[in-house]
């Protein structure tokens, strides 16, 4: 069954999507009342409406837009305020020196190609510009290569730990499918599961407990953002027979509220610096054109994932 939509309504929907900088049609449907209303009135799906819109504005099929910030509830806002006040007191007492901030980052080796997006919200008018990055890593061999790492940073020690985790790999990368970590359901994990995150915490504890710059007798405060896999990993932290006690790990846990990565900005800032440095190495120093020609001619071997990880480690520890 066809659901005709008038041209002026389609133009209005396009204006709403462009002005709202929605990342996907699902976001436009759930977050924009007008687009949702059009689908309801015309008894059509957002997929059908989106296809009609793309016929009038082909750029919708190429554009990536900034996703609007999630609308927080009053309770979530109160949690953010309470956490911020607590952290200010911790800062005044000098306790932030004892925090260990841990988070993860997945990085694609091969950059996206041909993306276009409109200017950020608040600009005088939407301006289209191309987001293409010229790189020797745009060849098909690197299409699905990515690293998945967990990092740990501290005000006392700086960036002191980076671990390659489940999720790192690519078809031609030489990295085998994960045969170490399983999910709670017993299937092989595709991203770091609870057990692997606990292993990262154990490794971080080994690092700080033997580090000469970490004061003896000072227990760390472990900070991981508030997502389900981290909550599962930290479950049983204070259990006398739990995994943390058996591993001899000391310290307490302090997590930011849900949907608040901006309040976990210490490690987020370190990850952003690492990513910038790593991308600079990839785009401007990893493979010069001469090496690329030799690669395609079969005169040199493909770079390995370990070499890319070493570059990421260098960017992490020096940025």
From TrEMBL:
It comes from the Eukaryota. This is DDE-1 domain-containing protein. It comes from Chlamydomonas leiostraca. The lineage of its organism: Eukaryota, Viridiplantae, Chlorophyta, core chlorophytes, Chlorophyceae.
């Amino acid at each position: 069954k066809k659901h005709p939509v008038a041209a002026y309504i389609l133009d209005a929907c396009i204006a709403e999507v462009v002005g709202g900088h929605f990342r996907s049609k699902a976001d436009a449907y759930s977050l924009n009342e007008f687009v949702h209303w059009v689908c309801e009135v015309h008894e059509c799906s957002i997929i059908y409406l989106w296809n009609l819109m793309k016929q009038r504005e082909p750029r919708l099929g190429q554009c990536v837009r900034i996703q609007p910030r999630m609308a927080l509830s009053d309770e979530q806002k109160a949690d953010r305020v309470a956490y911020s006040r607590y952290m200010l007191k911790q800062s005044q007492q000098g306790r932030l020196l004892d925090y260990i901030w841990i988070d993860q980052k997945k990085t694609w080796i091969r950059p996206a190609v041909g993306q276009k997006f409109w200017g950020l919200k608040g600009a005088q008018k939407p301006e289209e510009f191309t987001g293409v990055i010229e790189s020797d890593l745009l060849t098909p061999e690197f299409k699905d290569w990515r690293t998945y790492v967990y990092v740990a940073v501290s005000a006392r020690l700086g960036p002191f730990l980076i671990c390659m985790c489940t999720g790192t790999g690519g078809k031609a990368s030489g990295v085998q499918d994960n045969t170490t970590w399983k999910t709670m359901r017993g299937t092989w994990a595709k991203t770091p599961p609870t057990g692997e995150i606990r292993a990262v915490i154990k490794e971080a504890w080994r690092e700080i407990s033997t580090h000469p710059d970490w004061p003896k007798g000072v227990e760390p405060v472990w900070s991981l953002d508030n997502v389900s896999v981290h909550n599962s990993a930290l479950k049983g932290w204070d259990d006398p027979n739990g995994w943390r006690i058996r591993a001899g790990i000391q310290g307490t846990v302090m997590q930011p509220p849900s949907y608040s990565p901006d309040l976990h900005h210490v490690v987020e800032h370190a990850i952003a610096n690492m990513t910038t440095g790593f991308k600079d190495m990839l785009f401007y120093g990893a493979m010069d054109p001469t090496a690329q020609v030799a690669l395609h001619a079969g005169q040199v071997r493909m770079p390995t994932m370990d070499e890319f990880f070493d570059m990421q480690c260098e960017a992490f520890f020096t940025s």
